[in-house]
Write a structure and sequence with these properties.
Length: 198
Amino acid sequence: MLKSYLQKGLIEAGCDEAGRGCLAGPVYAAAVILPPRVRFPHLNDSKKLNEFTRDKLREQIEKKAIAWAVGICTEREIEEFNILNCSILAMHRAVQQLQVRPEHLLIDGNHFKPYDHIPHTTIIKGDGKFRNIAAASILAKTHRDEFMKKLAKEFPAYGFEKHKGYGTAQHVQAIDELGYLDCHRKTFNLKKLQKSDK
């Protein structure tokens, strides 16, 4: 059973990111403020759900949330500022866009930088513990997957619709045979990935 809040009585926004470990595409983050008593069947960490369930939950979350927003950092920003900093920056951008100002942020993971004097708490595996973080994980994942599917139509040989930019054997082979695209994070260590994949 996912928890509704960490601190009762505060407007809490859950925050999570998607695409941190990818070789291609932006990193996405979402921030979500949920009503106290709203319930979503099957709500959980996005990684534990299939694509159909995630897409259905996205519709419900975007419809019923008090406020939600998605922020991104581009591939070039990732190469300039590194992926950890960009994961945090994408969360900042999501929080900045919320139509309701949160009084507390619940952050999935153990890394964050304060944003706009809003208190925050980092929670390891928070997307499997709190409803608003789970909701944020679903929005970040589904919005990013949507982007990668569009990219797949432009570059069908790379299989983005299947691996969504992660370093699968198929993706690494496509890069090896066809080269890098502008959407690739070229500073990521491809040779190390190739060795670890064997």
